[in-house]
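Exercise 4. Each item below gives a protein and its sequence. For each, produce the structure-token representation.

Item: Alkylated DNA repair dioxygenase AlkB (Micromonospora chersina).
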Amino acid sequence: MRGIHERPVGLTYQPDLVDDDEERSLLATLDALDFHEVRMHGQIARRTVRQFGYTYDYGSFQLTAAEALPVALCGVRERCAALAGVDPEALAQTLVTRYPPDSVIGWHRDAPAFGPTVVGLSLGSACLLRFQRSTGENRRVYELELSPRSGYVLTGAARSAWQHSIPPVPALRYSLTFRTLRSPRS
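Answer:
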């Protein structure tokens, strides 16, 4: 299989979505959160998470109602919604992930329970966001460096046809991932 470098259709990237002062304030808010382990396929990941709006269970693949997004994070959700061109309330689930140095996330697509729009904000350390998709004999690949304070949107093929991953991060990194839901919930 040969690799072809191709930017995924539906990927939007915005450096400096928040400024230095906003990042410092957000990092202080995130540092105060109580994070939970991620257990997948019997393994505990190095990264830890906190979920708002809805909690996604990595074992049962189910969504359940969770506590509301803290007020301190609502402004950044509005900014991310504007980047994606959606109403802030449509971003019903928020995943806050804490990546200690050398932690990773393997190849995946966001779960089918989530809708067509995923918006991320990267804070702290820079990282690579890698993409892959195979079509016939060709493997299509793309890498994007997410700088601190940058945002990205996955829609269309970038959301549904491509997998993404993050190789080991060099230093502490947080990400806020805002997601629409596949079907409305009450």
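Check: The chain has one domain: 4-175.
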